Amino acid sequence: MASLAPSTPLVAAHGIVLRRAGRLVLDQVDVTVARGEIVTLIGPNGAGKSTLVRVVLGLVQPDTGTVVRAPGVRVGYVPQHFAVDPVLPLSVHGFLRLAGPHDRRRLADALARVGLDDLLDRPMHVLSGGELHRVALARALLREPDLLVLDEPVAGVDVAGQVELYELIARVRDDSGAGILLVSHDLHLVMARTDRVVCIAGHVCCSGHPVEVARDPAFARLFGHRLADALALYRHDLAHHQHVHGHAAPPEATTASTVGGA
To answer: 173 and 260 in one domain?
Structure first.
């Protein structure tokens, strides 16, 4: 990875304003990601989460505002959707090589890193939803990114698979020290697996540590007091479990709550 000072944000977006077809999509939005932290964007359907991700990546230019990336920062990106044509005979090996001319061993190592072994020659169109997401993550990791951007990384995956994917994302952060920006609507899982939450609904409603966000009146107004109270209690119980037992809560203690897409 590039040598960057720990205090230097990998990416910092400030005052982002974006209009589309006369509609204000993003209004003075700020978001930063530092090395070694997981930052999660949440918000209701149509809140502008995926659009903000594209602005951060430089794929969409805002009307006003700035996006500053650390010099030499390498970015890995996993989009929310990508089409796999069953008529096109694309194997996992071929898909991973789209990231660059890596040899077979390097590709196999990338798959092993995301918990997939012996799938290198499997056709892409026969993979399950969870396997597709892991393969896409493996391709992003081949870049050895400083910053990993994941847009709805568990979309279309069952609850057990979601827990496993979030745990995998946390391990990637722990092993590599990469900063991670992800979009999610699975609030319980977000509260258990993120360092900082930025809640947006066109503008930033609230941001901070998951416990702080769950207790913020703006969050309660957006998602309802009962959900906010449940998430705060959930986070408290999880923290207690980790303190007493020294590890994360088991998957059966985790329940997903859907609040809307990007």
So the answer is: yes
Q: Which amino acid is at 21?
A: A
- For residue 116, give the nearest of 102, 126, 127 by alpha carbon: 127
Contact 56, 181 (CB under 8 A): yes
**Amino acid occupying residue 38:** I
- Say what the pTM is: 0.79
Say if residues 220 and 210 touch (Cβ distance below 8 Å): no
Helices (H) and strands (E) in the chain, counts: 9, 9
pLDDT digits (tens, 9 = 90+) for 74-132: 999 998 776 676 666 789 998 998 888 888 999 999 999 888 888 899 998 888 888 88
Q: Would you state the structure tokens that stand for residue 23, as one six-digit string? A: 């509609």
Say how far apart CA 66 and CA 12 lie, in whole Å. 8
The CATH number linked to 177 is 3.40.50.300
User: In total, how many domains does the chain have?
Assistant: 2
Is residue 94 a part of any domain in this protein?
Answer: yes
Do 192 and 248 form a contact (C-beta atoms < 8 A)? Answer: yes
- Give the position of tokens 């000072």: 5
Q: Which residues contact 253 (CB under 8 A, 6 or more apart)?
A: 237, 238, 241
Give the integer Cα–Cα distance in Å for 50 and 171.
Answer: 24
Q: Is residue 248 part of a domain?
A: yes
